[in-house]
Amino acid sequence: MKENDVQRILEAVLLCSRQPLSIQQLRRAFEPFELSADIIKDHLAGLQQIWQDRGLELVHVASGWRFQNRADIQPYLLRLQNEKPARYSRATLETLAIIAWRQPVTRGDIEDIRGVGVSTQIIRTLEDRGWIEVLGYRDAPGKPALFGTTKQFLDDLSLRSIQDLPALDSPQEIDVIQKALSDSQKDHSDYAPSDSGVDSEDK
Questions:
Q1: Cα–Cα dist 114/108, whole Å
Q2: Residue 197 forms part of a structural domain
Q3: What is the pLDDT of residues 130-158, one digit of tens each?
Q4: What ranges does the record give for the region Disordered, renumbered to this chain (predicted)?
Q5: Is residue 201 domain-resident?
Q6: pTM of this prediction?
């Protein structure tokens, strides 16, 4: 197989995929040819160079590789969408931020940090969206669930790992999450529209 063909195939596969693809998944696209992971990575690096001045960029996130629009292009794309991106209440974002930066944490830990109770609806919203999951249970009375973030959360923020989050003492930690989630082009039809301002659990 020609070198140029490998890059063209990778480009087409990634552009047509709705989800990030891992190196292993990309290798399967070339069967029965056996391309090493290093060869795939070299061609991915080449594609990143080719696309560096275009409206799309090739990025490596937690679940694999994907093409996504660049941040400066997002406002133009939003004008073509019938539904505005969801806005999440500050209570929901604070809960998500605490889980992201302090994980694994229990619901009680979150309430201690926030100083107020955490409604079941907030936890359910974050679980339904695929951003948090139960990682285990604390060895304490009642065996409270320990929550952590998911690969989907990292993908939606275009991060490869939880270590890529800004420093914990960053005053913009809530704003970073809000902006990243607002920029997501995924279907938000199950969530509050952006002009509502708050989620139902805060009413």
A1: 10
A2: no
A3: 999 999 999 999 999 999 999 999 988 88
A4: 181-203
A5: no
A6: 0.68
